[in-house]
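The records we work with from here on pair a chain with its fold. These numbers are not coordinates but entries in a learned vocabulary of local backbone shapes. To see the layout at work, look at the sequence and tokens printed below:
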Amino acid sequence: MTALLAPAPARQGGRGRVLAARAARAPRGPVRALLTTATVFLISSLITFGLGALSEANPGAAVLGETATPADIARMNHEFGLDRPLTEQFTGWLGHALGGDLGHSWFTTLPVADSIAAALPVDLSIAGLALLFAVLLGGAAGIAAARSNGGRLDLAVTAVCSVLGTLPAFVIAIGLIAVLSVQAGLLPSGGYVPFGQDPGQWLRFAVLPALALSLDAAAGIARQLRTSLVGALRENYVTGAVMRGLPARRVLFGHVLRNAAGPAVTVLGMSVPMLIGGAVVTERIFNLPGIAQLSLQAAQQHDVPVIQGTLLVTVAVVLIANLAVDAGLLALNPAARRAAKARPGQGGQL
């Protein structure tokens, strides 16, 4: 690999331009990805705090009720620390948040971190199962469509993906409840059982919400994988492998799929924020005690510490998912790995 990347003045024009173009398309290197993630997290935390601080909520009056005097309200707001300058409030809130202390609910006085810790596993388990469904369904459909390429199966997959891409998750959820729960009676229409309590029951309650969330992501994966596979199957190395007598299954799964999976992995990473956003509606439909329900109840009560905590944790989950996607792209794409190693020295290896 080093020899391939060694400086070659005589050939620098053509090969250098090729490697520079690949580097421009490659995912972020580890250091750049971490710096970008830290910057986005800091900006997101500032926006999250600003939304709560600039709201017109009066927590002292809301907590004490209609009989509270102005002096009592001022005393309560002082206990919440709302009479301090905003910069002091933000630095104090962010410093405690980085240490795991997200404050206390204004109404229940419970630690926000404990409330999120009780609700977050619901979302993570549903989202994880939804991602698994999306990979299996979208991957199988994309591979089948690429192998058909112009045939009836390809057209059918394209049509189904186009329809699924236009349907919001709540419409799919209602349809699944009507068919699989009400008509067929196969799965429960709502509720949740923790995985640690009964894995079998957890799966029965998690299938429908996970399936409702996964179909849009599965359609995106199928379309991207189908397009990239059709292009990769026309590459010279595929023709060479077939001419050497390698089985078609080995060529597809051993060589082509690895090179063509990058766009599908990117779609998978971009699906994580949509899964979390769709969970707000899905949790409502399936009566799931997740973080979306927690934030919705907090928003109705103007419980700003809980809203800030849920938003901050959600941002952190999305950023971690993006880092995982970048790591996956680096693992799948040898050119991306070479580009990531070349970035610290920039043009030296090109």
